[in-house]
Every structure is written in structure tokens, then in C-alpha cells.
Amino acid sequence: MTSDARRALVVRGGWEGHEPVKITELFLPFLREHGYAIRISDSLDVYGDAELLAATDLVVQCWTMGEISEEQSAGLVAAVRAGTGLAGWHGGIVDSFRGDVGYQLLTGGQFLTHPHGFSDHAVTLVEEHTDHPVIAGLADFRVHTEKYWMVTDPLIDVLATTEFEADADRSRPVTMPAVWTRSWGAGRVFVSAIGHKPDDFDVPEVRALTERGLLWASR
Q1: Cα–Cα distance between 88 and 94 in angstroms, integer?
Q2: pTM, whole model, 2 decimals?
Q3: Segment 135-189, tens digit of pLDDT
Q4: Rounded to a whole number, what is the distance in angstroms from the first to the last CA of the chain?
Q5: Alpha helices (H) in the chain, listed in sequence order
Q6: Which of 93, 127, 170, 188 is the least buried, fewest Cβ under 10 Å from its Cβ?
Q7: Which residues contact residue 78 at a Cβ distance below 8 angstroms, ignoring those fewer than 6 apart?
Q8: What percent of the chain shows pLDDT beyond 90?
Q9: d(CA 199, CA 207)
């Protein structure tokens, strides 16, 4: 490891249904190829280590549900505000630490529900952002996985969406954010709702936008 290597902190745990170890392992070679020294933590205690976070260029979080302490949440928020990047996908970032308002404000969205099982559905790129480095050169694509219904912050830049048709509970169709970025102080945040299972990342567009999102969010 060289002294000028960028540093990534992979924080993984929580509900095992999202396979946090198996899926984060998919991206470790990519990060190493791009010059990152990687530290892996299966504990949220690292969010209470201000010195460690200040020296971290990118936090990759895959931690579904669970509880975060006030100190840990505040530490992560402060680190991103100071310039540390945060990136993640699916429940590992938008179904984390339910009820922690500071964390929800940081990520810009919170998972609420999804239709039962997996569905084949389209992911549509937002035309006004097609030159964004996360999705530039990509086209609309389809996935067969969970489709997340979320509440989101108006201060996010939505890069891709999914559609929900009207049904017994919803009186009209809804366009739902699926991929977004945001700034938080000096830091950047990347979120993708796609990634329930490892083979979601076999879709070339999903893999590409996720890898690009990691790099975009990094300091």
C-alpha cells in the first residue's frame, strides 16, 4: 500500500437476506484496480472513529436494517459533510437504521415497501442527467428483481427511475427514483435501489452505474 493510495471503508452487516458479504466482495477487485486500499468492518463502531473516517475517501455501506447509535450516526454524517464519500445500493443503504432521521437526511431516501417477489421492470434514465458521469453513455434497461417504493428528499439528483402502475392502493401511476446522487456539505452520496441479489449486477448497466457511483462519490 502506498502512502498516496485512496482509502475505502466497506461497512457490511445487518440482515443477511441481502448477502452483504457476497455482494460487497463483487466490488473489491474494482476498487483495488482503481487504487484504493480497502478496510472492511462488520461493526458500526467505525462510524464513531472520527480520525479513521477523516482519512477515508469512500464509505461503501451494505447494512440492512439494524440500529445505529446517536454517536455513530453523527460521526458518519459529520464525515460526509467534511468530504468523505458515501455509496451503496438497495436495502444496504436505503433500508438502514430505520427511524434515524439524521441518517435519512444524509442518504436522501428511505425504503418503505416493494411488491411481493421479483418483477421484470424497466429502469429509465432521466434525460436531463444523461451526461452525468454515473450514467453517461448508458441506455434504459430492464432488471428482474425487487422494485422499491420509497420516500425521497427533494434535494437529490435523480438519474434513473422506475414506474409503478395504478392499483387498488395507488390511484394513479407513479414515477419512482431508482438511482440518485446528492451533495452533503463537501461530501457526495450515491444511492441505487437495485441490488437485492448478486445476479442483479450481472446486468451490465447495473454493474456499470454502481461502479461509477462508487468512484463519483469518493473524495
Answers
A1: 8
A2: 0.96
A3: 999 999 999 999 999 999 999 999 999 999 998 888 999 999 999 999 999 999 9
A4: 18
A5: 20-25, 28-33, 50-54, 70-82, 91-94, 101-107, 204-217
A6: 127
A7: 50, 53
A8: 95
A9: 10
d(CA 8, CA 198): 21
pLDDT in tens, 68-120: 999 999 999 999 999 999 999 999 999 999 999 999 999 999 999 999 999 99
List of long-range contacts for 116-119, beta carbons under 8 Å, 24+ apart: 117/146, 118/144, 118/145, 118/146, 118/196, 119/144, 119/145, 119/146, 119/147
Which residues of the chain form beta strands (DSSP E)?
Answer: 6-14, 36-41, 58-64, 85-89, 109-113, 119-125, 141-145, 149-152, 157-164, 174-184, 187-192
**Residues 8, 38: Cα–Cα separation, whole Å:** 5
Quote the cell numbers at residue 128: 436531463
Q: Which amino acid is at 78?
A: A
Q: How confident is the model at residue 55 (pLDDT cuts 50, 70, 90)?
A: very high
- Cell numbers at residue 108, please? 436522501
Provide, rounded to the nearest whole percent, the portion of the chain with pLDDT above 70.
99
Can you tell me the distance from the alpha carbon of 197 to that of 195, in angstroms, rounded to the nearest whole number?
6
